[in-house]
UniProtKB/TrEMBL annotation:
Listed Gene3D superfamilies: 3.90.228.10
EC nos: 2.4.2.-
Pfam families linked to this entry: PARP (PF00644)
Record organism: Sinocyclocheilus rhinocerous
InterPro entries: ARTD_PARP, Poly(ADP-ribose)pol_cat_dom
Protein's UniProt name: Poly [ADP-ribose] polymerase
Domain PARP catalytic: 344-547
Entry annotated with the keyword Repeat: no
Gene Ontology terms for molecular function: NAD+ poly-ADP-ribosyltransferase activity; nucleotidyltransferase activity
CDD domains with a match to the protein in the record: ADP_ribosyl
Amino acid sequence: MIVINGHETYHKLKMTLSVPLQGHYATDLSRHPQLDIDVGAVRDIYSESAVSIRVYETIDDVDIDLHINVSFLDEEVASAWKVTRTEPIILRLRFSLSQYLDGPEPTVEVFQPTCKDGFCLGVQLKRILSTFISNQWKHLSNEFLNAQQRKRHSWFKAGGTIKKFRAGLSIFSPITNVAVPGSRSTMHITTRQLIQLFFSSQALIHCKSIPTLEYGFLVQVMKYSEQRIPTLKDYCVVCDEQHVFQNGSMLKPAVCTRELCVFSFNTLGVMSGAAEDVATGAEVVDLLVAMCRAALESARKSIIFDPYPSVVDPHDPKSLAFNPKKKSYERLQRALDGITSIREITQGPYFEITKQMDKLDPLAHPLLQWIISSNRSHIVKLPSSRQLKFMHTSHQFLLLSSPPAKEARFHTARKLHGSTFAFHGSHIENWHSILRNGLVNTSYTKLQLHRAAYGKGIYLSPISSISFGYSGKNRYLPSSMFLQSRNLNCVALCEVITSNDLQKHGNIWVCPISDHVCTRFFFVYEDGQVGDANINTQDVRIQKEILRVIGGQST
C-alpha cells in the first residue's frame, strides 16, 4: 500500500487534462490521470486536508477519503445525531486505480474515526450516496468528465486563478467580504456565519439537485453530501422521500408513514441503524409514554393524537396492527396498558421486559418501540449540575426539536436582533404531537385550544405563572418509578428572537414566526405543583443562571 501526500495546484492541473501529473507522480504509470486532476480539484477548492489517498497497486484499487466538515452543527444537535462536530465525516470511495471512472462502480463507506458504534447518520448518508453514485455512473466516463472540465477555462484569469466562483464554492475559507445591499461598506463574515447563511438559504429546497461536474466527480460528491447532510431529517431513512406527516422540520431522522417503508423497517430491518434512537433513559421513556397516554385519553384525541402509530402485526408481518388509515383508539389503549403495567421490572434485563410485555399484550412492545423511535426531538434528563434550581423540580430535561437548518436561521436572526428566554405552557396531551411535529403556530386552526386574543402566533410569557396557567392538569397512570403522580403539569423554556416581529402585550408575548422560537428546556411537575410562580426570565439573575446551565451558548 502506498499513501500519497503530494499534489499539484488546481491552476496547473487545468493544463494537464490528458497527461499524468509531473514530479513523483510520473513514476506511477498505472494511475489514471483524471484521478489526479479530480484529487487536485478537491484540494484547491476545499483544502489540503480535504482528501487523502491510499493506493493498492497490486490489486489496481485506490481508496479516496473525502473529508466533510460538519463543524456548523451545534454541540447539542451533534450530540443528538451522534456526530463529533470537531472532526470531519469521512466518505471513503474505492475506485479502480488505472480505470477510475471507466472502471467498476465505486463502493462507499461513511464513518467518523471516533464514532465506532451506532453512527446512524453514516448509515443513512451511505445509502443516499450509493444511490446517487449509481445513478451518475450510468453516463459517467473519463472522456465525458474531461469534456465537462474543459468548459471551465473561461473561469480562469491569465494568472491561473479562478474568477468569482471559487469564493462562492469554498464555504470553509477563513474570512469573506460581503457587500451589504444599500450600503457602500462591506462587512466581514466569519466561516461559521457563512456556513449558517449557506444552510439557511433557499438552496436547501433543492438539496437533491445535481451539482456541476465541471470541477470533477469528487467535488460533485462532496457538494452533494454537503447539500444532503443538513436535511437528512426531512427525508425518510428507507425511501429517501420527504415525510408526508410532518408540519415542519424536526431534528432526528425517522421512517415515514408510507406502508412499504413501515414494513421494510419493522420486518426486514431496512435502515434500522439509521433511525435507531439514542439510548433513552427510563425517565424519558416514562415521560414519552405519559404524553402518549394523555393524548390518547383526551376528548380531542382525533385532532391531537398525531401521528397515529404505524406498527406491523407481529403475528402477520404483511399487515399493520396499528394503521393510520384504520384507527382504533380502543385497541391502542389496551396495548398502552400493557406498557404501563410493567413498572416493577423497568430495571430488569430488556429481554425479560419484552417477554413480560408480550404476555400482557403482544402489541405492547411494538407500540413502545414506536413511541420511542417516532420521537423526533432530542430529549435527555439533565444531571443535577445542569438543572435550573429556581424551577424547583427534579424532572428537568434538555429539549431540542429544531434541525440544523432552523438553528442556523435562528442563529443568524439572533446576531441581527438578539434573543431572550420565555416560557411556553401547553397541556401535556399536546406534547405527544409537539415532539414529533414541532412547536408550530396553531392559531385559527383546529389545533387551537385557547382563544388567540392577541392574534396569530406562538404564545409565550416571561412570567412563569402565566405559562403554568396554560399547562393544565392531567390524570395519569405512571409507567415506572420516576413519575409517581397522577397529576402532571409541564412547561417549556424557549429562546425567542427579539425582533420587531415579536409582539409584546404586557407579559403575554406573541411570536408569529415559528423560526424565531426554539425550545431549550422542559420541566415536569407532579401533584399539580407548578414551582415558583414569580419567575421572570427578564430578571438579570435568572438570565445569568440560564446561560450558566447552557454553557453561555446564547450570548
